Amino acid sequence: MQIPYTVHPRPDTGLFNAKLGVWLFLASEVMLFGALFSSYVLLREGALTWPHGYEILNIPLATLNTVVLISSSITMVMAWASLKLNDFAKYKRYIGSTVLLGFGFLIIKSFEYGAKFSHGIGPGDSTFLAIYFTLTGLHGLHVIGGMIVNGYLWGPGSKMWQSDPERLTNRIEVAGLYWHFVDLVWIFLFPVLYLL
Amino acid sequence: MSEHHTAEDIKKHVRVYINVFVALMALTIITVGISYLHLSVVPAIILALVVATIKGSLVASYFMHLISEKKMIFAALILTGIFFIVLMALPVLYYGDRFY
Prior knowledge:
The complex is a heterodimer.
Chain A: H1 17-46, H2 53-56, H3 59-84, H4 88-118, H5 127-154, H6 160-163, H7 165-195
Helix pairs in contact in A: 1-5, 1-7, 3-4, 3-7, 4-5, 5-7
Chain B: H1 7-35, H2 41-63, H3 71-99
């Protein structure tokens, strides 16, 4: 049986099915990260003292990571635009760049984590560090998940361009929705954990 | 976003994406700049969240195409927004009850 409405919008929703599905998934993701942000507020309000993130964490590295992730968002949306313009070669370059930028984000993050661990600092050392490692760790897992999907769409998944180009374009759009959400979460994580 | 675009439409979108990218970079510099002012906690939190919300809105509106999205998605997002507000209000209500 063929999956319905992968290309054309469903008449009642006006959307192709994957797009509605991914938006509903993202709604659940808002609640997942929302629960942790809410926990952060609860823990911070309840603590007698709370360190400034900039006293403990590496602001230049985190700023660089913000630049890297925002750059990966524009390459992702440009990958989708390239398919819409029937330029498959450009699509490959943009989606490949998105994966590489995601990889760059993780390498920079690993430098940050490595610096902490090498000084014997871990999530068990303070409430601040516990919520820092939980939030950034969960976000990092989301980056890895997005890279796996984008890597597939760069490699074997891109063969769909020959058989069903509109469906591939829609796949890139919904993969992009997820990737931009990961960027959006970081946009809030960065000031909350590092700068306040 | 509507599924039917002409090449000219997409080229217009691309120009918008580049402008949004430049705005996001500028707002990142502003975010970091504000932190160096070492403001007291409340104005620092308000300013940081205002800038982050502007950045988040740009990503959601243009990169995620929410600015031209269908009603069904907004219905789901409004519901999510309500639950999110409740979630964020929980710690406030907890400490409000405890201290006042």
